Each structure stands twice: as C-alpha cells, then as structure tokens.
Amino acid sequence: MNQKSVLITGCSAGGIGHALAKEFHSRGLRVIATARRLESMIELEALGMTVLMLDVSEIDSIRKVRDEVALLTGEKLDILINNAGQALPVAVTDLDLTEVRALFEVNFFGPMTMVKEFMPLLLTSSDARIVQTGSIGGIIPVPFNAAYNASKAALHAFANVLRVELAPFENIKVINLVTGAVKTNIAKPMLLPNNSLYKPMEPAYLEKRTQLSQVNTTPTSEYAQHVVTEVLKSNPRAWFWTAKMSFVAWFVDTFVPINFVLPMMAKEYGLVDFASRISSSLIQVPRNKKNVLITGCSAGGIGHALAKEFHKKGHHVFASARQLDSMVELKDLGITVLELDVTEIESVREARDKISALTGGTLDILVNNAYRPKQVLPNIMPVTDMDMDTARGLFEVNLYGAITMVQQFVQLLTASGDGRVAQLGSVAGIFPMPFSAPYSASKAATHALSNTMSVELVPFKFVVLVTGGVQSNISRQMHLPDNSLYKSVEHILREKRVGVSQVGAMPTADYAERVVNELLKPKPRAWLWLGKNSLLCWLFDRFLWKTALDGMMARMFGLLELSALVKG
C-alpha cells in the first residue's frame, strides 16, 4: 500500500517516456505507462508494468484513464509525468495551422487537461510531483521548429504558473524538465514543401536536422536515470536542465542578450547567406510615409492608441478590428479602417488584397496586437478551474492568428525592402502570474514564435513588445466556481488581481508613442520592455534565477492567505 505510483504519458518504444517507465520500475515504483497504441508498450507490459491506452488530446480518453488509475491506486497518484509530445519541423511560412493546432493539443493542452483531471488524486498523495517534459526549444530559437518551440515555451510558462498556484498545497511540487538533445525518434527531418521559400537550402536543412536527431545526443536511458533521480529527491529543482546542449542553452538564456542570440542562430543554420540572396533581390526604396497595418484597434485598447500615434507621425495606417463600429474615432481622423478577424483565413486574405491594392503591393510594418474580444475573454481563473475551450480561444488569436498574419503578408513585407513585424508580448509570458496560465502560456508561445521567425526571416526585423502594466480594457474580474480550491479566498484574490493589473499602469498614449518611435528606428530592438514595472521585470529576468519571484508572486496575489488556511 506504501508503494508510490507514477503515471507517464507518451511511453511508446524508442522515446523518453518508455525509458522513464523502465527506470521508475527498476526503482520499485508502481508504473502506469500510457500511449496511444498498446502495441508500442509490449516491452513495458512484459516487465510487469500496467499499460493503458491514452490520447492526451481527447478528454474522454483522459477521464477513462483517470478512473482506471483511481481504481488501481485507491484514489491516489504520487507522480504525474506529462511527457507525450509531437514535433513539426517546418518553417513558419510553411506551417499548416491544422497541424499546429494538433501539435498544441498534445504538447500543451494535453498536459493542462491531465493536471486538471488528476488533481484530486494528486492532492490525496502526501508527497506528489507534477513533471512537465519541456525542451531547450522553448528557450533557444531553433529555426524550422517554430510550432514546437512555441508549444514548449507555453508548457514552461504553464508549469511556472502552476507552481505558484499550488504553493499553498505543500504536498505537490511542480518540475520543469528543460530537455536538451536526446536520442529519440521525435526530431526526424522531413522534406520541405516544393513551394517553400527555403527549398534551395533543403540539403543543408536536412543535414542539420539529422545532426540534431542523431549526433551528439544523450541516450534515453541515461536521460531517464538523471530525471528519475531528481524527481525522487525530497526537494527537487523546479527547473531541471538535463541532456546534451542543455548547459549551453542555460548559459545562453542566462548570460547572452537576445540581440546576439538571434543572428548567432541564423548563422549556425546557414540562414545568413540565404538572407543575403533574398536581400540582394529586394528593391530598397526609402519611404518617409510607411504603410502600417495594426490588428486589434478597438477603442480603449493598445492597438487604437498605436493607430493614432502612427497617423500623427504622418504614416498611412490600416487599423483593423472585428467590428468597424469600434473604430469610429480612427475613421474620423482619416485612418483607413478594415474589418478583420485574425482567426478567419478568408477575412485575413480579404484584408491583404485590399491593402495590396491600395499600396501597390507593399507593407512596411505589421503590428500583431489583436486580443480576444471582451465579451468572450476567459475569466481570470486557476488552472484547476480553467475551461479548456476558452483557453484554446486565446491561442486562436494570440498565436495562430499571428502565424496567419505573417504567412499572408510576408510577400507584401518582402516587397517593402525593409519589412518589420511587431508582436504584442507580455511580462506574463516570462513571470509566473497566478490565475493567468492560458494567457501567460500564449504570450510565452508568442515570444518563442517571434524569436524563431527572427532567425528564419532574417531580412525582416521582428520586435517583441514585452508589455507590463498598460491601461486597457483587456483585464477582467475573477469569478470562481463554488467547488474551486481557491473559493475561500476569492475576495482576496479578486482584490489583489485588479490591483496588480491596472493600478499605476502606463497610459496607452505614452506606451504607443514609445513603441512607434522604436519601430521607426533603422535598427529596432528585438525585445522592447514597456509598461508598469517592465524595467524591474527586465532586471529580474536577466539577473535572478527562475523561481526567485515565486514567493513575491504568491504574496502579491493573496496565496499566502490560502496557505495559512490549508495549514490550519
């Protein structure tokens, strides 16, 4: 009865999960190994492990396994390892959003759903662990890997938020595995599409992918030994960097500014020479009056202020939003307003064609600022209470919408000769903001996507706007369900949450002025930190360890009060 139980997803032969299952089993734990196909776990079953069929992208499959595990273990689970994963080694401009969504269902939404569904069993354990198999891809912008990089960045952010939210429950520890190069079958190279911008460099691309997947990698058995040893410690590290290249990734993330990392990665993958060939074919025609497209320009928001600032400086602004009546003021100023829903491909293409006709086929600046409209924004919510469909809605706008916009406007940006793209990021994508896991994860994914695009599309200039507190209409109140773990301190959490997000926030006009000035520079910064406490956040990010702010975040968001109640 005292035997610890561990549930591992993604245990197919040849992968990390398979090796982890064998290592935990060798140390006497009760292992429940799962995968989508039972025949991929024949060896594990022969060793005496329990094997169950599980597809983490299907809620019914997860709940069926949850019920089976509850029966097997007496309603208790000690260790949950979210390891199931997919790769998609494709350039941003070649991505199929159907495949991107499928990847995120496994790599991100699957782990989030697993945590939600298995939380009652984990709370029963006196010493539980939630382990997320992350990757250095979520830290370092490996080109031709944008969707995977973004999904792992999202997973890291999710683990950060979860760790702080669960701080009052001292029996559960959350571990982020930042996995380096491991010899598995997930990183196999694939041929580039015939119409890809990168088809001429396919041989070099395939060689590099093969090197990543096979050369200078850590065997899965060795990786598993290190991970299991760490997980079973009484006080495991919250961020555990392991396998080949993980130390290099840690060093670069900790000490090397992003402005140096991006060109370094482009050179490593042969993209600088490729970019030179593209740049030589571009006609550089300096224009004082830039063509600027901004998404999410509804009144009261950041996009609205950006449109006014660009217009004030004499540029041709295309302001867009889902509803034209939300941009009446901009239209009255003489700004061109467009109806645009970034989640609908036909809407994006229609806007692209209109802009192309009006500008002669060029676009100088694209600002991806669209956000989920207020009436359908998910409530600020703990992970354990989050509705997964509303969480997916955030990614439709914040990530998938940004991908669509870049794909559809890349030709117009190329024709500009000096195209640049700004992505609205957030400090929430870097620091563990409790009760904002989907939003934080979507912004972390956006940061990773932008970094990868900066490497792949070297001739363009990508700017991540790491936004702190700015006055806007995006923030909402918290309303917890009656059965929430946090219901007893809801009034405290609500008060703290509002104070953190809007009190002392930077006016949108001030924010817009500084962003526009940066984007119009000949060489804008790759990351621009702006808004309330953004400088402080930059200092913390550069000079403190990953978990340094956990205690402060718990105090800021009222979690210490809950901790006292739990202990009582």
Automatic annotation (TrEMBL):
The keyword Protein biosynthesis does not apply. Gene3D superfamilies: NAD(P)-binding Rossmann-like Domain. Keywords: NADP, Oxidoreductase. GO terms for molecular function: acylglycerone-phosphate reductase (NADP+) activity; triacylglycerol lipase activity. GO terms for biological process: phosphatidic acid biosynthetic process; triglyceride catabolic process. Belongs to the short-chain dehydrogenases/reductases (SDR) family. This is NAD(P)-binding protein. It comes from Gymnopus androsaceus JB14.
